[in-house]
Here is the input.
Amino acid sequence: MTSESMESIPPTVREVYGPADLSTVPAFAGGFINFGHWEGIDLTRPLTVADRVLSQRQLYRRVLEALTRTEESAGPARARGSVLEVGCGRGLGCALAVEEFAFGEVTGMDIHPQQVRRATEENRELLDGSPRRLRFREGAAEHMPFEDGRFDGVYSVEAAQHFRDLAAFARETGRVLRPGGRLALAGFFPPDDRPDAEERLAGILDSFASGLDVAHPLDALTDALRAAGLRAVRVESIGAQVWPGWDRWLDTAGYAGTWSRNFLTAYREGLLDYYRITAEAPAVRAGHP
Here is the structure.
């Protein structure tokens, strides 16, 4: 990445996902860098690192299932061609997509060059063994370095809260998806556009105060997806399976009394929720018969 491109990365994002390497923080044991989907995990007992890793893998599975099944189907996953992860981090979710799902090709994209290097190192064995099924690429959500109609699916797990321009992300997603392709995204957003949400979140959560996370209201994303020509935009709240488990893990890991425990508070006060969002590209690209 050029020095000019590096400067385009917000300073907090550059630090947290670069030299600081968030994946090494005990709260993110396992390296996936997500809050986890804790359904089926007993939260009444002390949690283990194995529980934590399982929660993170389960969140990826909830997202990837949305690319391989229709909303109405409960049957086996359908083989899909190529998929792109936007904000792949260390690439562990990409590895899961290769190993557990019937994708012919998985591309992990991250804006930070250090993350791309880490993903390549972390997944060296899989890259060497399946060179046509897995690859990593540097790029931004708002400027994806791929040709039109390149992918059957685009997915993103807990990255959209960092995107500065949701409209550009939506347009780029619509552009790189093939006709009929699907988007699946998991992330946390204020459920509405109440005027005090940004200020209140910054007051109780350091990630919003520092500018690492952006308080995009949910409809800023869903409206952007529709404006970009995507259809069948569906939203599912999964906060009940995310926030209590995340808070319980932070308590187990010794984070009691710190800013991070306030995610559950924000959820209970209606300031923030966690969603799985899906959408589809039109079966016929605009301007074509």
